[in-house]
Amino acid sequence: MASGGIEPRKLSVFGSTGSIGKNTLDVIEQVGGREFFEVLALTGNSNTELLAEQAKASGAKLAVTADADRYQSLKDALSGSGIAVAAGESGLMEAADLDAEWVMAGIVGTAGLAPTLAAARKGADIALANKECLVSAGEIFVQAVHAGGGRLIPVDSEHSAIFQALEEDQRHALERIILTASGGPFRTWTREEMAGVTVEVARAHPNWSMGLKISIGSASMFNKALEMIEAKHLFDVEPDQIEVIVHPQSIIHSMVGYRDGSVLAQLGAPDMRTAIGYALTYPLRPNLTVERLDFAKLARLDFEAPDTERFPALRLARTALERGGLQGAVMNAAEETAFSAFVEERITFLQMADIVEAVMEKMTGHSPATNIEEVFAADAEARRKAGEQISKVSART
Ligand code: NAD
Ligand code: MG
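^ thats the input. predicted complex w/ magnesium ion below
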């Protein structure tokens, strides 16, 4: 059972059936389980069988499938359990409306924005895996967390590392943040070699086991591109204070550089449970059974400058950072659309970046969003324009 001052909390896990969600339930179990934490809501999408199992095992009050067509199957799977069932967007909002003190934002993509924003407004501490909330709606999302009175605790391993290394009373001396990137499966590949890759090859990450979207994003480095924008909003830094360094072993999860030349890093085995655990019990640290680093076995840590020619996503992130406003929402929506087209084999791996760039160039004229509806409108327009680009490209090939 949890000890050492760790508080029992009422919590919800959005996206519990995914890679982050499963790891979160494992961490909750390791820290004290259902006798210690009160699980309010779990949400999933198509995998209602797993969702029902998780809800029963954790003693959740409410289970929500985002897929409205799966309502009956979830209801059947939970009949007689006493666990309430809801579905669709309204079901997700019902989950967000419960009085959780801590919410894991583990839904993938822009689909996570509305429920996570609602939970933030209600004042829950937000453990943020869903980086898209900040990429699309950075200022609005951060404001919502402040207005709600909860804390925003990063779960993305890089941002968790920076959060851990960035002492609040040292902010005056912060010079730069250095995001590490594994470089993904194509780190040493030429563009010619990347041109014809399949989804199966692109999703095979060398170090981390993750959901499909982020695995493909690691191969294209669009994941790092999103993380650069995520970092800007989390740590309130200027674009030129955000650096990326390729570090193939994924042992240093990221670093903070100070004006006296010191660099603080957070290291660990590539296992998301460390970052999830830190977000769950912050500012305390839980006892976790993750692998310990054996430095003698590791022997070396390597670093390389990132290559923006082979990985244009990094260049596009710089452009989006410099333009500000709704460019994050535009880049993110175009990338989600291009990602789906790649998975459906309608475009090639390299065409993803071409499409994102084309959409960003068509939508440069946006001033900063003043409300979330403007973000959703820019998101929808970027998806439409990406769809047009995809049709053009796939007609040619
Ligand atoms: P995943 O695909 O494994 O899981 C996604 C979850 O979202 C599932 O529970 C799924 O049911 C749910 N979902 C999917 N579509 C939905 C929709 N339309 N509406 C509501 N729910 C929906 O993804 P993941 O790898 O766990 O990633 C989740 C988020 O965490 C992403 O934003 C990702 O970038 C971020 N993240 C993941 C990792 C990792 O190790 N997996 C690391 C850092 C950050
Ligand atoms: Mg990351």
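Residues 156-158, 227 surround magnesium ion (ligand 2) (CB under 6 Å).
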